[in-house]
Design brief:
Radius of gyration of chain B: 30 Å
Shape of chain B: rod-shaped
Strand content of chain B: 5-15%
Largest sheet of chain A: none
Number of domains of chain B: 2
Radius of gyration of chain A: 19 Å
CATH architecture of chain A: Up-down Bundle
Distance between the termini of chain B: 96 Å
Number of strands of chain A: 0
Number of helices of chain A: 11
Shape of chain A: globular
Largest interface: A-B, 52 and 36 residues
Oligomer: heterodimer
Strand order of the largest sheet of chain B: 1-2
CATH class of chain A: Mainly Alpha
Order of helices and strands of chain A: HHHHHHHHHHH
CATH topology of chain A: Formate dehydrogenase/DMSO reductase fold
Structural class of chain A: mainly alpha
Helix content of chain A: 55-70%
Strand content of chain A: under 5%
CATH superfamily of chain A: Formate dehydrogenase/DMSO reductase domain
Number of helices of chain B: 1
Chain lengths: 294, 88
């Protein structure tokens, strides 16, 4: 593919959005999975996941609108100013992503209100907490998970449809790679929070380690596919060179997730492996975003 | 031009071979690559990644959700087994 367009100059705000958006969507999915596992002892970790999801989501629209350059015109992403109708373009990942962010925000906020009521932080929303218990809550969080994971994936698709080397060369792999990375990072963050909270069951933390390992395996496979696609396109050199530093972080993060249950990792400080895993998630997005634009 | 000895001369964009037509055409004296222009062979738009990108994301999400559910449920079964065997 011939690349002839100038770089879009997506930098730190976009990196922040991709990272926090991924953590938000991934955390929401984990909260849902914990509820679907049907174990009452996982409930505390599920609440932490839903609270984390909303807190991580808050900076996302802020970062996005600042990156637009004209933050006050952010609503142009949703409203067609020429006819006053809705600006919904199914062919555009940016348009779909704007709508998905708005809809996921509603799901994440309501689940957050329910979670903070259940932990006793905000009794005024007890009714939401009660409404989200049982089957209705499972349906609600399952639908929210679809939008949450869409937020994780569409950022990769957005890059893949941009006329830049690396991004468009990675084809179908970028969306999946970002989903796997978001799930791995969210599991690491939840583990980090679980280890610092006494109300999260120790058995739940062990199972979060297992989940994180599975997600890291999935991420490793997709990173390998990503590199093979770049090698075929002849642009793998763009993600090497100076970017090796970030690759080291990515690899350390993956190793930390994969080795979390090993005997050696048990001797590390409890926060070490999850923090390494999170840094790896951030580094992966940074090298994909920045390497293509240099 | 060709009869005058410019064998590689061509009208670029005249037909639909490059991006389905350019609504303009240009006289090139050599291959498009010489001018860093897309050729008939590599003139593909990245928008072709749109649907495959979503498919890749959905497939990964499904695998990830199944893996997560297995991790949470298998651990629970182990925990239940341990609880059952502890009194012995």
């Amino acid at each position: 593919m011939e690349h002839f367009a100038s770089p879009p100059h997506w930098e730190w705000w976009i990196l922040g959005y991709f990272f926090f958006g991924g953590i938000s969507g991934g955390s929401y999915a984990l909260g849902t999975l914990l509820r679907f596992s049907g174990n009452a002892r996982d409930e505390s970790a599920a609440r932490v996941a839903f609270i984390t999801s909303f807190i991580a989501l808050v900076p996302c629209p802020i970062f996005l609108t600042i990156d637009l350059g004209q933050p006050l015109l952010f609503w142009h992403m949703l409203v067609d100013t020429s006819n006053g109708g809705l600006a919904f373009k199914p062919d555009s990942p940016m348009s779909l992503g704007s709508w998905a962010l708005l809809i996921f925000g509603v799901f994440s906020f309501v689940s957050f209100l329910g979670a903070i009521a259940e932990v006793g932080w905000f009794r005024a929303t007890n009714g939401i907490g009660r409404a989200l218990r049982g089957a209705a809550g499972l349906v609600w969080s399952a639908i929210g998970t679809v939008f949450g994971l869409f937020i994780c994936a569409y950022t990769g698709v957005l890059l893949a449809v941009s006329n830049q080397a690396v991004w468009s060369d990675a084809g179908w792999a970028l969306g999946g790679m970002f989903v796997a990375s978001a799930l791995a990072g969210s599991a690491a963050l939840l583990l980090l929070l679980a280890r610092s909270r006494r109300d999260v069951d120790a058995d739940t933390a062990v199972r979060l380690e297992s989940a994180d390992r599975y997600f890291a395996i999935l991420e490793t496979i997709l990173i390998a596919i990503f590199l093979v696609l770049l090698a075929i396109a002849g642009t793998i050199g763009k993600v090497l060179g100076v970017w090796i530093v970030l690759w080291v972080l990515v690899i350390l993060g993956l190793l930390a997730s994969l080795a979390m249950r090993s005997g050696a990792a048990r001797r590390w400080p409890p926060v070490a492996a999850p923090i390494l895993a999170l840094l790896g998630v951030l580094a992966l997005r940074a090298l994909v975003i920045f390497s293509a634009q240099t | 031009m060709k009869t005058q000895g410019y064998a590689k001369a061509q009208l670029y964009g005249r037909d639909e071979k490059v991006y389905g037509g350019l609504n303009a055409f240009f006289l090139l004296m050599d291959k498009p690559e010489v001018y860093k222009l897309p050729s008939e062979a590599n003139a593909t738009l990245p928008s072709r990644n749109n649907l495959p990108g979503y498919v890749g994301g959905v497939a990964t999400a499904v695998v990830g959700l199944i893996a997560g559910l297995l991790a949470f449920r298998s651990g629970r079964m182990n925990a239940n087994n341990n609880t059952t065997t502890t009194p012995r």
